[in-house]
Specification:
There is one protein chain. With 228 residues, the protein is of the alpha/beta class. The chain contains 7 helices and 9 strands. Strand 6, helix 6 and strand 7 form a beta-alpha-beta unit. The longest helix has 19 residues. The relative contact order is 0.16.
Length: 228
């Protein structure tokens, strides 16, 4: 067989069996620091397809730009969800979960809403490791009881080790959103074998806010939003 015939056969085989590549959908997360006038269409054209938006903090703060940000992301066709900035020393986890749900943190199986996330950072709030684990369990259980989904846990590995004693109690239920501003996400907190979301930078080409990646493909992201 001539060389040209071999080449034609190779092209035909590749065309019939294209290699599939995981898309690793990109996203951003924002708070009131980014304001209400985010150009979500531009963010989408830059390659982002999902977003997490801060809704609440403790039991006294609501992001004043939450509605504008959430609506803007929705109208631009994003899969989006909201997050709660935890204040474990101020009130019970269940109390803060209820406040979060009431003010934008709920979930519905509409295919465009990600489960709510709890943002754990800024020190251990004077709690022992066991008390912090109990607080997170209280938040998680209340959210699950209300919404039928376990909340995503946002954390750094170093915070998790310091403030929970590197508890392995949450990996089987709660998706991990790992903050690790590096070229790879590195060591994981105990209990998780991979992060569902990876916050890999605090700024970048996608648009305002932190830069994130979903560990999977677009279909997997949609399944997560649907709860399937």
């Amino acid at each position: 067989m001539q060389l040209t015939a071999y080449l034609a056969l190779f092209v035909a085989l590749v065309s019939a069996n294209p290699l599939e590549k995981r898309s690793a959908p990109k996203g951003i997360d924002v708070s009131s620091y980014q304001g209400s006038s985010i150009n979500w269409k531009t963010v989408k054209s830059n390659g982002a397809t999902f977003a997490y938006i801060k809704a609440t903090e403790g039991t006294t703060y609501i992001n004043p730009d939450f509605s504008a940000q959430y609506t803007g992301a929705t109208n631009a066709g994003f899969i989006r969800g909201s997050y709660h900035f935890a204040q474990p020393s101020s009130s019970a986890g269940s109390t803060q979960a209820t406040y979060f749900i009431k003010h934008g943190g709920g979930w519905s199986a509409d295919g465009i809403t990600l489960p709510g996330a709890v943002d754990l950072e800024a020190g251990c709030y004077g709690l022992s490791a066991s008390a912090m684990v109990s607080w997170i369990k209280s938040f998680s259980s209340e959210y699950h009881s209300s919404e039928g989904r376990y909340p995503v846990i946002y954390v750094t590995t170093s915070w998790w080790k310091s403030c929970t004693g590197n508890s392995g109690s949450f990996g089987s239920d709660n998706p991990l959103w790992l903050a690790s501003w590096a070229s790879s996400y590195g060591a994981l907190p105990a209990g998780w074998s991979y992060p569902t979301f990876w916050q890999y930078a605090d700024s970048g080409s996608l648009g305002p806010g932190d830069q994130d990646e979903f560990n999977g493909d677009s279909a997997g992201l949609e399944r997560m939003a649907k709860g399937s």
